[in-house]
Amino acid sequence: MCVETGRLLILKDLEIIYGNLYDLWNQNYISVRDKEKTNYFTRVALGAYAYPMFNVSPNFKCIVAMDENNLASVDPLLFNRFEKQKLSINDMLDDRQKLLVKYLYNWTNQITTLVKVNSVIGLHNKFTQEDLFIGFDKDEILQSLIFHVIMNNPEANDNEILEK
After folding, report:
1. Per-residue 3-state assignment (H helix, E strand, C coil) for 16-43
2. Distance CA 144, CA 115 (A)
3. How many Cβ atoms from other residues are within 10 Å of residue 59's Cβ?
């Protein structure tokens, strides 16, 4: 339906059908001109169903979202058909939110700094943020926390956000 109406189509974790859409993504279209406009068609086959004349709007756009950790296993024939963009949660944060994340990062770093004296190597620290927070990821956890708190408390000031 998005293809026919020219609406944006976002696909994620649908590797099972991507191979069936190569003609669509290659813009391998049959053009049929009538009195007023040109219509575009392509072949799409999904399992036992085949659509040899699938209507494609000239305004159709498609985004395929992939996890960066899984890119090594992506079929190169699929991967090379798209412009690549890397997005992270940091791209969604404004300057104020990034400053709050930095403050929280420094705070978590301070509370996980456990220093003990070792007679052989001097000062020693083996306690990390991952030890304190199960599943801690420096690129996602604090950013997600700040984003969540601000979305649920839009009028909160910085101190109130950090307290939550």
Report:
1. HHHHHHHHHHCCCCEEEECCCCEEEEEE
2. 29
3. 9
Say if residues 79 and 22 touch (Cβ distance below 8 Å).
no
Residues 74 and 7 in one domain: yes
What's the confidence (pLDDT) of residue 82?
Answer: 84
Residue 91 and residue 110 in contact, taking contact as beta carbons nearer than 8 Å: no
Average pLDDT of the chain is 83
Provide the whole-model pTM: 0.62
**Helix, strand or coil for residue 68?**
helix
- Residue 15: domain span: 2-79
Is the same domain home to 148 and 118? yes
Rounded CA-CA distance 96/100 in Å is 6
The model's confidence at residue 101, banded by pLDDT at 50, 70 and 90, is very high
Q: What is the pLDDT of residues 45-62, one digit of tens each?
A: 877 888 888 889 989 998
Residue with tokens 């079929």: 75
Residue 90 in tokens: 């940091």
Buried b (16+ CB within 10 A) or exposed e, 85-106: eeeebeeebeeebeebbeebee
Residues 6+ apart with CB under 8 A from 119: none
